[in-house]
Automatic annotation (TrEMBL):
Transmembrane segments: none annotated. It comes from Paenibacillus albilobatus. GO terms for molecular function: S-adenosylmethionine-dependent methyltransferase activity. GO terms for biological process: methylation. This is SAM-dependent methyltransferase. Residues 42-137 form the Methyltransferase type domain. InterPro entries: Methyltransf_11, SAM-dependent_MTases_sf, Thiol_S-MT. The keyword Lyase does not apply.
Amino acid sequence: MDKQKLIRKFDKQSAMYEENTRKRMWGAWRRQLLQNVEGDVLEIAVGAGANFPYYNMERMRLTAVDFSPMMLQRARKIAAELRVQAEFIESDIETLEFPRHAFDCIVSTLSLCGYDDPVQVLRKLGQWCKPGGRLYLLEHGLGKNPALKSAQRLLNPVARRMSGCHWNRNIEQLVLDAGLQIERMERHWGGMIHLIWARASVMI
Ligand SMILES: C[S@@+](CC[C@H](N)C(=O)[O-])C[C@H]1O[C@@H](n2cnc3c(N)ncnc32)[C@H](O)[C@@H]1O
């Protein structure tokens, strides 16, 4: 899908994402995933700041990226309310570059569904992380049950058109294909929701 069209699609959903942030949607999973995030931290596809309530700002410096101006506007508002200090960058993650080994931790929640080439994005995350740095992922993808997977694959074109999200991604395989080491993984809701604690390879 054309990038400008995709950005407009996410712009339009930004009010809903702000509401979800205020409702602390999926808060238990976010809290569990993000409790040890520290140091120089990059959050990609930050949306309306859904993870901000779970960060301990005393032990981190945050850089937050999204390509949707409306999402960033709402993320800035939530950050001000929660006293979260961050550098916000409006950019497409797929074309953005950071120096190698720039971050201690990288956070991605509900973002791998949106990219044209999620493996290439994950490879870049591995390079942006310091050697042995940590990646924290909360992503939706294909479930475990064959019938559920078939339904997700069937509905994928509709989901992409309506929300900009792919429903047919094998999240674990994408992470492995990018050369990242999975240290721990939990799956919920029939296996669709993935919580992944991964490490960048020390070889990158
Ligand atoms: C499903 S929302 C998730 C938002 C937030 N991370 C959360 O957990 O609620 C996906 C976000 O990814 C952003 N996004 C999608 N593709 C992107 C890209 N190529 N570059 C930057 N941001 C992107 C969208 O603008 C949107 O804010």
